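This entry is set out below.
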Amino acid sequence: MPVATLLPFTATPNRKSASPTSFRLTEKFILLLVFSAFITLCFGAIFFLPDSSKLLSGVFFHSSAVETNTRTGPDSSDSGSAGNDERVLAKIRKDHEKALIEAKDTLQKRPDEIKQDIINAKEKVAKESVGQGGKDVNNLPFVEYQRPPGTTGHEPLDPETRERRAKVKEMMKHAWDSYRRYAWGSNELRPVSKQGHSSNLFGDQCLLSKVGQEYVIPSLQGEMSSNEVLWFFLSQVFRRKAVELGEKLLPAFKTPTGIPWALLNLKSGIGRNWPWASGGSSILAEYGTLHLEFMHLSKLSGNPDFAQKVMNIRKVLNRLDKPQGLYPNYLNPNSGQWGQHHVSVGGLGDSFYEYLLKAWLMSDKTDEEGKKMYYEALQAIETNLMRKSSSGLTYIAEWKGGLLEHKMGHLTCFAGGMIALGADGAPSDKTGHQMEQAAEIARTCHESYARTALKLGPEAFRFDGGVEAIATRQNEKYFILRPEVIETYMYMWRFTHDPKYREWGWEAIQALEQHCKVEGGYSGIRDVYASTPNHDDVQQSFYLAETLKYLYLLFSDDDHLPFDHWVFNTEAHPLPVIKKDKTDRPNEVE
């Protein structure tokens, strides 16, 4: 047999010297290699492109979106996409303006007319729900409207406090007006360059607060307030949208353990994890920060699936051995085993612990499992992570494979407020001790601010080499308008009424105004130890949703969103406590 037949890539003097058979085999082999590479590329796209379903639908199924773009002409690949974005933004603006006009027209009516309109609407919904077996037209259970407690509160009596709260409101208006003017429809604002970036509406956490600002007026009298008008009409819209989004997220739980993926393609239902997360693990602060929202969704929708998904997460965690009683940040959703043994009450872990406590509180203190898990975790944190510096500053270190890293992140500073919030539910002999711990953590985090040139805290600070509460690495010296320190001040004020917490909050306001405020909003800072701020040109969405909200509550009376009626989720959105009764035990899942 000719050698060329066995080795199709064997060199030949010239093309003519090769037999026709060997040439055809060579071609076939090359084509096979090309085809294999193409198949590999296609399958790789399914798992690694940000939205591979759009690619597949466009290439293989000629989706309407792709067809629309191709009809615009040969240059449509970029201009068509930009045109679609412009049309979407134009529709958002049009819908927004239409809603404002309708609301203003409604609120021009007399109070008794508005009240009658609401009563009529409620009766209509009730009739429709009865006609459809207790469900409304969107297959959601009928929920009787109740006046939400503490949504308005009262003006503080103290003139200085009232003035400082008004200042926070002014800050919110400047931040929001700048976002609306320069970045409407985008996720966040670049306040220095005055433009938007990351056009993803899921990140716009302050939209509803602005809708409320546009709708609410103080002139209505009688029983029916303008807040109730807003609440009744908008709650139905957002309830449907919340349930719809929740159902879109359910495929993320389709793993061997039920521990959800971190990333989900909403169109295809395909999930995956961050490639950097300890061999494709799920992250504690992500899969552990769903409980409040999913329990609430089950209440709003009548669908127990949401509650069952998050209760299953607890079952998986309770079956696992926990090193020193601690919860590592990484868990493999396929094997159900811990990944890298890294424990942090800051980034990657923080809100998991917060949600154990708040699940108990939101259940009107009926979720005994959540309560037990929280206090056991807190004890493990105190034993293994909580330390005191040589000068007496209490901090929470990080644990890596049994070794402590004496670093505390800005994110970890939320723990002071969390511990204060849970102190009342602790055994009586530990309540005072936990309040002391909370106060000490608040002091440490305040020191991290006070020891910088700009009086704003770094992303992380260390306690080693003779350094205390100071960032020593350049990549830890930035400040991105984070809320955690202010959050702890707010909780500590509510529980102690010690005036220093309001003073510390006012110090932060002055620093924000002096160093972060620019003409186009508020910007983060790259180095808080530099004498002159170098702005990072990002106004984070959580600055409005959390930082300014906590500042406003810090200078409000306790009857404004009182803790016995409201629980704040990890993004500072208030969720109502699900009041217990004889027939409704919200955290008991079949």
Notes: The chain has 19 helices and 17 strands. The first strand starts at residue 188 and ends at 190. The longest helix spans residues 76-107. The mean pLDDT is 81.
